[in-house]
Amino acid sequence: MENSFQEKLDEELRKIGQTVKKPNILLLGGTGVGKSSLTNLIFRADIAKTGTGKPVTQEITRYEIENSAVVLYDSVGYELSGENSKDEFIAKIVEFASASKSKKVDEQIHLVWYHIQASGHRVTEWDINLITKIKSLNIPIAVVFTKCDLVTEQEVKELANEIKNTPCFEVTTNEKVTPKYLDLEKLIEWSSNNLEPVLKIAFVKSQKVNLEEKKKNVNSIILQHTAVSAGVGFTPIPFADAPILLANQAGMVARILYVYDLDGYGNLLSTLLKTVSLGSLISTSGKWLVGELLKLIPVVGTIGGGMITGSVAAAVTAAMGYSVSEICFTISKFAIDGEESKMEDYIKNLTSIFKQKMKDNSII
Ligand SMILES: Nc1nc2c(ncn2[C@@H]2O[C@H](COP(=O)(O)OP(=O)(O)OP(=O)(O)O)[C@@H](O)[C@H]2O)c(=O)[nH]1
Ligand SMILES: [Mg+2]
């Protein structure tokens, strides 16, 4: 049983890895405004140094980030675009974005982040022109004001006032500013909301700054799987071994691990998680919780099996989902805050933490 859960989990993770589609994000803005610093922070990457970028045009380089499920199209500022005039530069960028629209989904530009440095820069007519043209292609575009640690709130507001009908986000990569990174989490939320479901999950997984967005997406995954479990309802007790239920729960856990980027494809936490074998822990606790739940429902032996098993199955699936999600959230938070010793302690006590959470999250 333990092994089969682990096997199913691995199988489900493989399936997700094979079917997921990576969103393509186009990064626009002048040279030195902080595009690379920001994307490195969001995706915990080092795109400038990886050397994996492939030039796709004179102006645009494509980066596949290692251990990440997004693709970045980084552009040079018009200042570096060679002999081109600004108008020519804009025309080339628009042509690139426009041409992508007639390609297959994997090759389209799905989002544009338009960076404007808040300090010492103005919003120019060329900025407005390029933003307007991208919008007319129906590609979601957000203006990102960078280096907001260097200016007053009032100064950024004045800049933002010059942008009409386009969402604006004020950000900084300076850790010392509060609230941390300013609107960066909102930029992530906006981006997630503007991606098709099949692209969204890869984006939410890859970003490392907005854990609430991960949790939100995981909650809807849990609801879907809980509904499936309720539908399995006719499996007689004890049903924890029932293959359909097991597959459904393994699929759910795999998707949760994926969204939190704890799915074991080369991320920094996979080794730690592997050592406690979350899969076997979950299947053991699933059985344990079923036992606990049955004790709480005295009528279980007397009512005809079907309906009770459906709701108990749903309850166990939901408890399992929320428990795994909360644990992944905590571990991710430790990782983001660089609190490795706390994370190690937490993982050492994972068995008892998980069982307690299963009890707390049980809705019966
Ligand atoms: N104060 C401050 N400096 C920043 C911030 N973000 C980036 N920088 C600095 O700005 C400089 C340029 O940052 P990059 O991320 O290389 O900018 P870029 O837009 O990728 O530049 P190019 O790729 O060369 O066009 C670096 O020295 C960064 O350290 C910020 O939020 N605040
Ligand atoms: Mg750069």
TrEMBL record:
Q: Does the keyword GTP-binding apply?
A: no
Sorted alphabetically, the keyword list is: Membrane, Transmembrane, Transmembrane helix
Source species, please? Flavobacterium zhoui
Subcellular localization: Membrane
The record's Pfam families line, in alphabetical order, gives: DUF697, MMR_HSR1
Q: What is the recorded membrane topology of this protein?
A: Multi-pass membrane protein
Q: Which PANTHER family match?
A: ENGB-TYPE G DOMAIN-CONTAINING PROTEIN, MSS1/TRME-RELATED GTP-BINDING PROTEIN
Domain G positions: 25-147
Q: What top-level branch of life does the organism fall under?
A: Bacteria
- The name this protein carries in UniProt is YcjF family protein
Provide the primary localization. Answer: membrane
Cite the InterPro entries for this sequence.
DUF697, GTP-bd, P-loop_NTPase
Q: Which Gene3D superfamilies match?
A: P-loop containing nucleotide triphosphate hydrolases
On whether Transmembrane is a keyword of this UniProt record, the answer is: yes
